[in-house]
Amino acid sequence: MKFKKIRIYTQYLIASRNLFALYLLSLAFVSIIYSCFVVYIYPKYYKYIEDVYTQRSTEAAGGLSRAFIGPGHLSLLPFPADIEASIKRVVSSGLILKVKVFDLNGKCLFSTQVSDVGTIHEGDEFKRIVATGMSYSKVVRKSGTSLEGEVATIDVSETYVPVFVDGKVFCVFEVYADVSHEQRGIQNLAFTSLGVISILMIFGWIFFTYLMARLALVERKRTKLDKILKRKNANLNERVSYQKDEIEVGHQIAVKALATLAEYNDTDTGSHLNRTKHYVVALATELSRTGKYSCSVNERPVMIEELGLASLLHDIGKVAIPKEILAKPEHLTSDEFNLMQKHSVVAGEILGKANALYREQFGEDSYLALAQEIALYHHERWDGKGYPVGLTNTDIPLSARIVAIADVYDALRSQRPYKAPWTHEKALREIVSGRNSQFDPTVVDAFVSVQKEFDDIFENK
User: Fold this and answer.
1) Residue 424: exposed, middle, or buried by beta-carbon count in 10 A (0-12, 13-18, 19+)?
2) In degrees, to the nearest 5, what angle opens at C-alpha 31 toward C-alphas 27 and 34?
3) At residue 161, what are phi and psi to the nearest 5 degrees?
4) Dist. CA 369–CA 295, nearest whole Å
5) 359 Cβ contact partners less than 8 Å away, ≥ 6 residues apart
6) What DSSP state is assigned to residue 322?
């Protein structure tokens, strides 16, 4: 089990870009610290050493200048013995490596290293020191070159200090001081600091590596659980979808079975209900695209589908009408026509009660409310001369105004006991002639736009 965890950790460590980024960040941080030492701290420290040794050399030169203006010391040749002795004592301390004294022409008059006596310093920097009377100091690194062209064997401070007598430059002292111990100190400090920082970074990286490995293991378990949940959710969604489809199909079958009750006593209607459904869908779709009814038709995503389904029940009230009246080949008498008109009221009552039961159970209306207003009002006319109530204009529900055109068109095109079937063109002219009287003019305009689709539905459905 332990080796298995190690293997899992290793896999996730190799795959983890976050850990690699953390490693690069650690290297970058160490590099920045080191760069700070190289770019900022080292130069500052060397400048500090230069300033210190310049100050010390200046103080020493000041003391020597007072010695030069003592009795008999106004000349450099011969070089004063007491000053020479003082210089040699300073050199013997070990901090000062070498001292030279130059005249104003750059000739070396005295040096703790005898071989330097008599040499000429021709550097431009030396001439500037003589001309300006300003001190000069810099740290020469090991293997570096001094102003005189000498190669340093260790880190040294090279300082030039002019000696003034009566306010004028009298001679120039050159002092070489050993600064290697200071250099070793700053290096030790730098390496110690980098070492401590590196160790802290390594421990931090190890800690974060372990932490990321643990998180990777948790993520692996979470991913596994997610896959299990997704698989179960997929199965559940599939079952719910299947059951929903099953309920929807059963629902549509029940509606169609209920709708066929209207055909029980009126066998001549044939496929009238099915065609009416397709007419309604085509007409509602056209109205949904543009015009003043588009918002109403698009009120719900399934509005058009529900309109088509509800339209199947528009003649369900005919179950209450005697078969003799429905199948009568002659024109109906006044009493028979009055009885026929009651089918819309009967349908409204049947569907209203059914919707009331649904609302009582679920707290909202179903498509049966739409079916009720279609069945009750699809024989109303735009001019108010329809039945059963005599509603006018937009008081008639839009659903009923749509079904009215679909119902009349199919009735005109169909064979009935009392009439022969009409052609599409004749039925089209009849409906257009009823614009603003029998039918809503906006719905008639939509019908004209899709009239070819109506013809195709009648011929093929």
Assistant:
1) middle
2) 140
3) -130, 120
4) 19
5) 365, 366
6) -
Residues 149-158: contacts with CB under 8 Å, at least 24 apart: 154/178, 154/180, 155/179, 155/180, 155/182, 155/183, 156/97, 156/180, 157/49, 157/50, 157/53
Strands 108-111 and 156-165: unpaired
Residues with Cβ within 8 Å of residue 93, at least 6 apart in sequence: none
Q: What pTM, to 2 d.p., does this model score? A: 0.51
Per-residue pLDDT of the chain (461 residues; tens, 9 = 90+): 545 555 555 555 555 555 566 666 666 766 776 676 666 666 776 667 667 666 666 665 555 556 555 544 456 666 667 667 767 776 666 667 888 888 888 888 888 888 888 888 877 888 888 888 888 878 788 888 888 778 888 888 888 888 887 778 888 888 888 777 766 666 666 667 667 777 777 776 677 677 777 777 777 778 788 888 888 787 777 766 665 655 565 566 656 656 666 666 655 555 788 899 999 999 999 999 878 898 888 887 788 988 998 888 888 888 888 888 877 888 888 888 888 889 899 989 988 988 888 888 888 888 889 999 999 999 999 999 999 999 999 999 999 999 999 999 999 999 877 788 999 999 999 999 999 999 999 999 999 999 999 999 999 87
Return the exposure string of 366-395: e unless at least 16 CB atoms fall within 10 Å of the residue's CB, then b: bbbbbbbbbbbbbbbbbeeebbeeebeeee
134's tokens: 């300003």
> CB–CB of 378/314 below 8 Å?
yes
- In the chain the domains, ranked by start, together with CATH numbers, are 23-184 (3.30.450.20), 260-460 (1.10.3210.10)
Rounded to whole angstroms, the maximal C-alpha distance in the chain is 163
In the block, which residue shows the tokens 């030279």? Answer: 100
**How buried is 452 (Cβ within 10 angstroms: 0-12 exposed, 13-18 middle, 19+ buried)?**
exposed
Question: Cα(125)–Cα(458) distance, rounded to whole angstroms?
Answer: 113
Which residue, among 414, 394, 425, 403, has the nearest Cα to 461 in the 3D structure?
414
What one-character-per-residue DSSP string does 284-298 give?
A: HHHHHHSSTTHHHHT
- For residues 358, 359, 365, 371, the Cα torsion angle rounded to the nearest 10 degrees is 40
**Amino acid at the residue 52:** V
Element (H, E) at 226: helix 180-259
- Strand pairing class (136-140; 168-178): unpaired
Which amino acid makes up residue 349?
E
